[in-house]
Design goal:
18-stranded mixed β-sheet; globular
């Protein structure tokens, strides 16, 4: 019965979150397809699942106070409320200091899921190439616009995988999600009014196989490169480096920034020009320029070639902290630890822009945003160069060739 229900709610048609202007946050979520004939809302599915899982055949009996005093536990739902004064400048908008207040709902739950989404889309507002969202009156035709249509666009998105055994049976390898949370950000204005300026859905811990045909990404995607590279195709050299979202193949529409940092609607990922690739245990530093090293190694790779990624591979428990999706109408920083030090400190990102860099915060940009924190993804140099094929994400789908 439970397997049948889980199979029913596995497939999501499309999830879309749009930030339409710097002043309006507009979100929509299409419905979940449970089977070809019937459609239910996401909330209905979750409530139905929770109600079903709570059903019991045992008789309800009162608990004595003496027995109850011996029991300790934690609430299923907890709330956090915190306030931060922060600068919201950066890539997308002029700098301004605002008073932000956050309300966070935490759900104490461990979830294992195999989920598929035909097209995951966040932030379809028109943008200029520098990341600024066009005003509600429309884009200035004299300014260069962003060529990609969405901040985050991933077709055939899936969490979890399936593994075919030698005997022909298929084993489900679910994606793990621990302690999900939903959070809303408000701006407290000087005149006493307030406005919603952001919302995010995230998880305290998560891990497993994330798959999809990536068209564009906006966010923090921090990949660790580690392993042996054949220099000149002959000499094995152990290298370490960090890969981030970047420009490539002509850079931005003005032909600039080839190999530079590009956190908004990026199509490529790799070692940013001017940063070090450490080799031979630190004895040698290789610095790429224009997406290439002096040995001819390409350091800019298309995101589309990474079709299945293992989140949390480098951690001892196979999980990584603070994986989230968000949408905000201003550049704001979300707290990764609401109970920690909430005084933001500032620094510069790989592109030289001023952002919040305090360890208890994650800077986001106006529009849609995906956060895959440091340590979440690790690749060998060879995997970075040739890409990763898609792992099976459905029992069978001959039309799409997904399994």
């Amino acid at each position: 019965m439970y397997d049948g229900l889980r199979q029913q709610i596995r497939h999501v048609t499309t999830i879309t979150v749009n930030t339409c202007s710097p002043y309006i946050l507009n979100s929509k979520i299409t419905k979940i397809k449970s089977d070809p004939m019937r459609t239910y809302s996401l909330v209905s599915q979750v409530l139905f699942t929770c109600a079903l899982s709570a059903t019991a055949s045992a008789e309800l009996r009162p608990i004595e106070d003496s027995d109850l005093s011996n029991v300790t536990g934690q609430a299923f739902i907890t709330f956090d409320n915190y306030e931060v004064t922060q600068f919201t400048g950066g890539y997308s908008a002029p700098s301004e200091e605002i008073d932000t207040e956050f309300y966070k709902i935490n759900f104490g739950a461990d979830i294992e899921t195999n989920l598929s989404v035909d097209h995951l889309v966040l932030g379809e507002a028109d943008r200029y190439e520098n990341g600024e969202i066009c005003p509600a009156t429309g884009c200035d035709p004299s300014r260069t616009q962003e060529v990609m249509d969405a901040d985050v666009s991933i077709r055939n998105f899936a969490l979890g995988t399936y593994e075919k055994q030698d005997d022909g049976t298929v084993v489900e390898k679910p994606f793990q999600l621990t302690n999900p949370f939903f959070e809303v950000a408000f701006e407290n204005k000087p005149d006493g009014t307030r406005a919603v300026i952001g919302a995010r859905l995230g998880f305290e811990k998560s891990g497993g196989i994330l798959s999809g045909d990536i068209e564009s990404l906006t966010g923090n995607v921090d990949v660790k490169l580690e392993g042996t590279e054949l220099v000149g195709g002959i000499i094995p050299v152990y290298i370490e480096a960090q890969a981030l979202l970047q420009y490539a193949e002509g850079g931005d529409p003005n032909g600039e920034n080839v190999g530079g940092f590009d956190p908004i609607r990026a199509q490529y990922i790799g070692v940013i020009d001017g940063t070090n690739i450490t080799a031979l245990g630190g004895l040698l530093d290789i610095v790429p320029e224009n997406c290439s090293t002096s040995t001819g190694t390409d350091t800019c790779q298309p995101l589309a070639q990474f079709q299945s990624l293992e989140l949390g591979k480098d951690s001892s428990d196979g999980l990584v902290s603070n994986f989230f999706l968000s949408s905000q109408s201003k550049d704001i920083a979300w707290a990764t630890d609401p109970n920690g030090n909430l005084t933001p400190t500032y620094g510069q990102d790989a592109g030289g822009k001023t952002i919040v860099t305090h360890e208890n915060f994650q800077q986001t940009y106006q529009g849609g945003f995906i956060n895959i924190p440091s340590g979440g993804l690790i690749l060998t140099p060879h995997e970075a160069e040739v890409g990763l094929p898609r792992l099976p994400t459905r029992y069978t789908d001959a039309a799409l060739g997904l399994f």
